[in-house]
Structures are given as C-alpha cells and as structure tokens.
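User: Hey, quick favor. My workstation is busy. Could you predict this chain's structure for me?
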Amino acid sequence: MLVVDAIPGAEMEGLVFCNDRGTSIYASSIVAKGNRSIMALGSPRAPLTVRVVWRGHPKAIWGQHGGIDCEGPILGDHTIPVAARIPDEVLRDIRSQAGRPSQRAATVL
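Assistant: No problem, here it is.
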C-alpha cells in the first residue's frame, strides 16, 4: 500500500518513487495537500527501499526505462527503508496465505 500526501503548504513537483531495483512505482507532476493518492502496488516482493526524488521547475521527458520521467534541479532526494520495517509476523502471515495478506497483516501494515 502506498500513500502519497503532503503537509499543508508543501508542494513537490516532478515527484518520482523508485524501488531498490530502479523501477518507477509512482510519479506525479505535482503533490500538494489537495491531491492525496492511495494505491495498492502489486509486486511479488516488498522493495528493500524506495527512493523519492522531486525537482524544481521539472520538464517531462521520456524515461530511460520507459514512461515519463522529469529533468530539472533536484530539490529533494530521500531513500526510505521498506522491507526492514515489515514485522516478521506479518511476513509469515502473508506467506501462509499464498501472498494474500489476512486482515491482521493488512492492519499492521
């Protein structure tokens, strides 16, 4: 599950989320308090990390791995640990359900 939101007054342009393999998993031309996104990401594995980059005055370009990317001065670049934050109990529960998390696992995540 991915939730993208901003605090009041914050605005991020040319926002791109990439997993630890460099694959873009989310992109938005602008993220501000008024356009919150909540989405379920389908993947056979949880990413080890997610890198989030946003830019000033971004220009849309065709990305190296396909899809739209942005160029322009980088204003923010953060890497967030993901897999390490998932409790072992949740991983065991997901594996026992053949990849479908139970209600207990979904609540913890």
